[in-house]
Amino acid sequence: MIYNIDQDDAESRAKEISLLLLDVDGVLTDGRLYFSNSGEEFKAFHSLDGHGIKMLKQAGIEVGIITGRSSALLEKRAADLGIELLYQGREDKLNVLDEIISSRGIAKSSIAYVGDDLPDLPVLNCVGLGFSVPGGHPTIKKSVHAITAYSGGMGAVREVTDFILTSQHKMESFLNS
Asked: Which positions ≥6 away from 9 have C-beta within 8 Å?
């Protein structure tokens, strides 16, 4: 269940979405960083989120990732999900958003973004529909249109994908197949 200030406004905005952009740590993962003694990094991704991303893509909605960190694990996960818009090591996320808008010729109003911390704020303030997670920074949660019930890395992205698909009346095709 998505929580938001104005359900009708969020649903109306979701109808226009053709691109969903995601942060990683705290959104696609639980936000914790795991390292082995040898320095190897570990990340856990939720299968519900992955399936939701695949459903969006099947429905003609593009998905991209913008993150300040770089990870070979994320590169593999994005490839597994067919995500071509992958921007790693990019702390200036607004600059990346501008690049995407310029290269794709897409309106800001047709972009949704899910973020949880202050580096996400400039993007959240520009896009048509902004989401955060329950564990997001208080400033972020005050700035978004909706907050997921599930935490980052625990199905939050799936909630967002289901919300968009339902708002666009595209969920039925997945339920009836």
From this structure: 145
